[in-house]
Write a structure and sequence with these properties.
The structure holds two protein chains of two kinds. Chain A has helices at about 1-25, 35-40, 45-55, 60-70, 85-120, 125-140, 145-155, 170-200, 200-210, 215-225, 230-250, 255-265, 270-300, 300-305; strands spanning about 80, 85. By secondary structure, chain A is mainly α. The longest helix of chain A has about 35 residues, at about 85-120. Chain B has helices at about 10-15, 25-35, 35-55, 55-60, 95-135, 135-150, 155-165, 170-175, 180-195, 200-205, 210-220, 225-245, 260-265, 275-300; strands at about 5-10, 20. Classes of the chains: A mainly alpha, B mainly alpha. Chains A and B meet through helix 1, helix 6, helix 7, helix 11 and helix 12 of A and helix 6, helix 7, helix 12, helix 13 and helix 14 of B.
């Protein structure tokens, strides 16, 4: 277990370093970041000033090491738009996105768990077809369009929920549904196939032969094993949801980190964009690391590989 | 799978003087496909949209770019004040919505298929190398996949497109270099399954070069999986293009892209909801078509994969 954990830690560290290089290079993809930062109307003098202020005239490696070293201490530089430290700008917004991600994940799991289990217990019946239908429709539904449809229905027609904004818990209802529904198909298919596999195994037959009651077999014996891969999927999906928050938050004008990223891209606030890309990637790396370790604890077979 | 022709048995072989024709594996598969409802619906949707893109100049009643400010925001024909001259109404600049929808299908299909080809080339190459050579190569490719998955795709795409400047070519290239991960994962796994087969060992002992083994022995045998991923990836690319255009960092106006139409209609959505619902339904149907088509092929070729 220790060897496995150390190996995974080393891999996660390497991935984190590579990801940081990518987000460092990201704002240099068009050539000179000073021009991108200064905007199209800037004079040569202003560009030179920005180049010196941000140290873009130094060798690339020095810039990277300097940026990386500061980033490790939580210092991502200053946002030229807000005239505030990037970390402070992000700190104000990250809570909203985390709340949205957590709610969406909970929504997806709570919707897919009963559907997946029912579909597995009664394969090829109407329950199975219904859950398959939910999965197929969910995959084809563009989340931003679904969000707009929700607004038309719940805010404009029924007037139940606010159209956009961040103020109260009501503002999170529609974004949660729009973001969570997109992840539901993946969970449902995994739970269904996992349950079908487990339910046909020998130990379930033994449990039935012993005369255990069906609900107990289903939830205590079968679900426990079928749920293991769902843990890893949840980690991965949470990461994807944070990344996908850029779309959903801009639909609902929810002031989280995704909306901030979108606005910052629009106004060339590159240090903020860079920091958000890095942070979302690192959250993904940490989540998958934790889920791998958790999985290895739950299922000893994984450690041997 | 490779025996494409029927296998007729001569009267001597069957010993009955009757010719018995056994269906080949390919025929069995074809029949299964023609019975698969999802596959057929998907095929029909894709064929219909393909027809739209080819016949766009014939089918579109108006020029999709022609603005007419005197005819702004005419509702579709099924609402009050709708006219048959503009069956799906007009947008806020008075452009015929049906014509824009028809021409928009070109953008979606072109970007979807081009992105799939680029991503497929990158992902398949990486997956083949990792699956066939294993060891360090496998570790390297798996590492690349992990890094790619860690990066938030939409965010990176939006940032890069906005820095370079949005155009169809930029969107295709950026997305193509971002979404190869599923190809790599699937091809790597199937190559690992095929590699220990005896015919691979036979080709090796016959002195075939590695390139020949990969191209002639392994690639044909993972074609089914490749087609399934490719179909689903076209859908993902179309969805991503629409999302980028919706965020204003994809295809630029006045090009009719369905994502862009939704984005432009958003402002007027409260009073003219058809501006958002119509292109959204079109997008949804096209994505549904590709997903059903891909799922159908998977159900028939590898039923355990559902």
């Amino acid at each position: 277990m220790l060897v496995y954990t150390l190996k995974r830690l080393a891999l996660a560290f390497l991935v984190a370093v590579t990801v940081s290089m990518v987000s460092f290079m990201l704002i240099r993809v068009s050539g000179d970041p000073a021009i991108a930062l200064a905007g199209e109307a800037a004079s040569a003098e202003q560009i030179r000033h920005i180049r010196e202020q941000y140290g873009f005239n130094r060798p690339l490696l020095v810039q990277y090491l300097d940026w990386g070293w500061r980033a490790m201490q939580g210092d991502f530089g200053e946002s030229p738009y807000f005239r505030l430290p990037v970390s402070q700008v992000m700190g104000d917004r990250i809570g909203v996105t985390m709340a949205l991600g957590t709610c969406s994940l909970a929504f997806a799991v709570l919707l897919s768990l009963p559907l997946g289990i029912l579909a597995a217990v009664r394969p090829n019946t109407w329950v199975d077809r219904l859950s398959l239908g939910v999965a197929v429709l969910g995959q084809a539904m563009p989340s931003f369009w679904f969000g707009l449809i929700l607004i038309i229905f719940f805010s404009v027609t029924l007037r139940w929920l606010p159209v956009s904004g961040t103020g109260s818990w009501q503002h999170f209802v529609m974004p949660t549904i729009a973001l969570g529904y997109y992840a539901t198909p993946a969970f449902m298919r995994l739970i269904r196939s996992g349950m079908i596999e487990v339910l046909s195994s020998d130990y379930i037959r033994t449990a039935r032969a012993k005369g255990l009651r069906w609900p107990k077999i289903l939830f205590k014996h079968a679900l426990r094993n079928a749920i293991i891969p769902v843990v890893s999927l949840a980690a991965v999906q949470f990461g994807f949801m944070l990344g996908g928050s850029i779309i959903i938050e801009s639909v609902f004008a929810l002031h989280g980190i995704g909306y901030l990223a979108w606005e910052s891209i629009g106004r060339s606030d590159l240090p903020v964009v860079q920091a958000i890309v890095l942070m979302l990637s690192l959250i993904y790396v940490v989540l998958t690391l934790l889920s791998d370790i958790l999985n290895a604890m739950l299922d000893p077979r994984i450690r041997v590989q | 799978m490779t025996a494409s022709d029927r296998s007729p048995r001569s009267p001597e072989e069957t010993g009955l003087g009757l010719e018995v024709v056994f269906p080949s594996p390919r025929q069995i598969m074809q029949r299964a496909m023609l019975r698969h409802k999802g596959f057929l619906i998907g095929l029909a949707v894709i064929a219909a949209v393909a027809l739209l893109t080819i016949l766009a100049p014939v089918l579109a009643p108006h020029d999709p770019y022609a603005q007419d400010l005197g005819r702004r925001l005419i509702p579709p024909v099924w609402q009050d004040k709708g006219t048959w001259d503009h069956p799906l109404g007009t947008d806020n600049l008075g452009r015929d919505y049906l014509s824009r929808l028809i021409y928009g299908s070109r953008v979606s299909l072109l970007i979807g298929i081009s992105v799939m080809l680029i991503a497929g080339l990158i992902g398949t190459t990486l997956g083949l190398l990792a699956g066939y050579f294993g060891g360090r190569m496998d570790m390297f490719v798996s590492f690349l996949i992990t890094v790619r998955l860690a990066l938030p795709a939409v965010l990176v795409a939006v940032a890069v497109v906005s820095l370079i400047g949005g155009s169809m070519r930029v969107v295709i290239l950026v997305l193509g270099f971002l979404v190869w991960d599923r190809f790599a994962v699937v091809i790597r796994a199937s190559t690992q399954q095929i590699r220990p087969q005896e015919y691979v060992a036979a080709a090796k002992s016959a002195g075939c070069s590695t390139l020949r083994i990969l191209a002639q022995e392994i690639l044909p045998n993972l074609m089914n999986n490749l087609i399934v991923v490719a179909t689903l990836e076209v859908a993902r690319a179309i969805l991503l293009e629409a999302a980028l255009s919706f965020l204003g960092m994809g295809v630029q106006p006045p090009t009719p892209s369905w994502g862009l139409m939704i984005s432009e209609g958003k402002e007027f959505m409260l009073f003219y909801p058809y501006l958002v619902t119509i292109p959204g339904v079109a997008l949804f149907l096209l994505l549904l078509g590709f997903n059903l088509f891909g799922d159908g092929i998977r159900d028939v070729t590898a039923p355990e994969g559902r």
